[in-house]
Amino acid sequence: MHFELYMLAAATLLALLAFFPASVAKHRTHGTGWLMSNRETAGLAPLPAWGRRAERAHANLKENFPAFVAAVLLVVLSGHTTTGTAVASAVFVAARLVHMTAYIGGVFWPRTTAWAIGWGSTIYLLAAGVFGH
Length: 133
Description:
Layout: H1 3-17, H2 20-30, H3 32-35, H4 49-78, H5 83-105, H6 108-131
Helix pairs in contact: 1-4, 1-5, 2-4, 4-5, 4-6, 5-6
């Protein structure tokens, strides 16, 4: 199997688990009963700052993930996988981990840099899939 697909699986796992930090904040702020309910938000106390950042980090991953999926599938299905595309797919996963961690931690520059690196990795994969070697 192509390495890029392993990285797609890793990114998918990250996307599936990225809700967890915000859920911890919601549990601590609103309790288990609220998490198990229909989650009405009227009258609730706001989440702590890190919890709000966790929500935004998760939303940002959901926005960037579909393009990465398409780019990886395009590279693999077109047969244009290279060492460069393998590295780019791994860099995307690492960048998204750094992005999420920095975002939740409220650290601006690593978050922004990681986002740009992940975005650039997706663009690279897309170009490789379309234009080849």
